[in-house]
Amino acid sequence: MKMCCGALAVVLLLLSVDAATIDRVEYDYFKYHPMDEITKWMTQIEKDYKDIARIEDYGHTYENRTISLLKIGLETGQQKKAIWMDCGIHAREWIAPAFCQFFVREILQAYKTDPKMNEMMKNMDFYVTPVLNVDGYMFSWQNNETRLWRKNRTPGPRNCTCFGTDLNRNFDANWGTVGVSYDCCSNTYCGTSPASEPEAQAVTKFVGSRKDDFLCFLTIHSYGQLLLVPYGHPNFTADNYDELMEVGLAAADAIRQVHGKNYTVGTSPAVLYSNSGSSRDWARMQGIPLTYTFELRDKGMYGFVLPEDQIQPACEEAYEGAMHIITYAYNKTFNGAVATAAAAVWSLILAVGVTSATLM
Ligand SMILES: *[C@@H]1O[C@H](CO)[C@@H](O)[C@H](O)[C@H]1NC(C)=O
Ligand SMILES: *[C@@H]1O[C@H](CO)[C@@H](O)[C@H](O)[C@H]1NC(C)=O
Ligand SMILES: *[C@@H]1O[C@H](CO)[C@@H](O)[C@H](O)[C@H]1NC(C)=O
Ligand SMILES: *[C@@H]1O[C@H](CO)[C@@H](O)[C@H](O)[C@H]1NC(C)=O
Ligand SMILES: *[C@@H]1O[C@H](CO)[C@@H](O)[C@H](O)[C@H]1NC(C)=O
Ligand SMILES: [Zn+2]
């Protein structure tokens, strides 16, 4: 009896350790998650990566839900550069929030094993918003009839009985000029004035208050397999258009190498349609040099209702594309020589560390 129970205690102890690990590991990144699960996931990430990940609330939606991001980076006590990524500005594009969560998981894993990522975390913070349009996203989860909702949930002005403003037509970037509607029932209704919507205000305020820190602004949508560069207005060209295209085309190459998917790179008017008031254009006009819209899978076969068995490949390829742009931005800003020496030391430390850390 004694021996049995001693052994049992050991087994139980092992099981409880395992259960703790499993809790963390078992979040299914390759399913779509409703908002409450994503919120819980953020809390869990913050808990599991205390030294490097923190939730920041930076605004409220029309229905007064909190808009939150994960800030990921090492505390150095110094002013750091930054990378912006937001997902779920359009409610029905469910692959986008799935990607932001996958992206967070990947950079947190890479941080432990990849000296380059470790170095990036020292010099930059990643600000990742898994769901920007929280009200719209929740509405799209209500039932089959609301699944394809795109806008936020602000009631229309005056006599208009429809709901919702297209948040990606609401930013203060040639607002209301092209590719928008003033009809509040339209899916491209641009709102009553630039940044009239609380969700657009939240991004404008947060990013605008530290715009010199941001090297990169990536906003994630679906679908179409596109990398869009500024501007959406056909009569304006970004002053670093050549650089944006060169980096974008290389990112598309990186994407193609993962699962063979072709992404088209260009301005919105060149490869999609003209528009105004997008967050990407706003960010570029604020002086952030590398601003891109990702339109993830697919090209229309399933459209916004991308099957869950495509979440993994869609995220894997988009991750390589995003990391290409981010790495370019990083290398351009930080001194390569110093970084390489530091990386060599880190490789040694990590090579020793990894063997003992893979026990899970
Ligand atoms: C919105 O929510 C915040 C907390 O999340 C609360 O402090 C505030 O009073 C709320 N505002 C309204 C108008 O309900
Ligand atoms: C909703 O859509 C799903 C999948 O398309 C379908 O299986 C289900 O029957 C639909 N439910 C209703 C109430 O229409
Ligand atoms: C609202 O409706 C009233 C009565 O139908 C009409 O007189 C008014 O012009 C409308 N206002 C707007 C802004 O459409
Ligand atoms: C772009 O400029 C041309 C020439 O000035 C003008 O005709 C056209 O309306 C402009 N396009 C937009 C969308 O403003
Ligand atoms: C991608 O584009 C290349 C060159 O245009 C073409 O040869 C290839 O078949 C395309 N791949 C897919 C999966 O469409
Ligand atoms: Zn979109």
Automatic annotation (TrEMBL):
<dbReference type="Pfam" id="PF00246">
    <property type="entry name" value="Peptidase_M14"/>
</dbReference>
<keyword id="KW-0121">Carboxypeptidase</keyword>
<protein>
    <submittedName>
        <fullName>Carboxypeptidase O</fullName>
    </submittedName>
</protein>
<dbReference type="InterPro" id="IPR057246">
    <property type="entry name" value="CARBOXYPEPT_ZN_1"/>
</dbReference>
<dbReference type="GO" id="GO:0006508">
    <property type="term" value="P:proteolysis"/>
</dbReference>
<dbReference type="GO" id="GO:0005615">
    <property type="term" value="C:extracellular space"/>
</dbReference>
<keyword id="KW-0812">Transmembrane</keyword>
<keyword id="KW-1133">Transmembrane helix</keyword>
<feature type="transmembrane region" description="Helical">
    <location>
        <begin position="337"/>
        <end position="359"/>
    </location>
</feature>
<dbReference type="GO" id="GO:0005886">
    <property type="term" value="C:plasma membrane"/>
</dbReference>
<keyword id="KW-0862">Zinc</keyword>
<keyword id="KW-0732">Signal</keyword>
<keyword id="KW-0378">Hydrolase</keyword>
<comment type="similarity">
    <text>Belongs to the peptidase M14 family.</text>
</comment>
<keyword id="KW-0472">Membrane</keyword>
<feature type="signal peptide">
    <location>
        <begin position="1"/>
        <end position="19"/>
    </location>
</feature>
<dbReference type="GO" id="GO:0008270">
    <property type="term" value="F:zinc ion binding"/>
</dbReference>
<keyword id="KW-0482">Metalloprotease</keyword>
<feature type="domain" description="Peptidase M14">
    <location>
        <begin position="31"/>
        <end position="329"/>
    </location>
</feature>
<dbReference type="InterPro" id="IPR000834">
    <property type="entry name" value="Peptidase_M14"/>
</dbReference>
<feature type="active site" description="Proton donor/acceptor">
    <location>
        <position position="295"/>
    </location>
</feature>
<keyword id="KW-0479">Metal-binding</keyword>
<keyword id="KW-0645">Protease</keyword>
<dbReference type="GO" id="GO:0004181">
    <property type="term" value="F:metallocarboxypeptidase activity"/>
</dbReference>
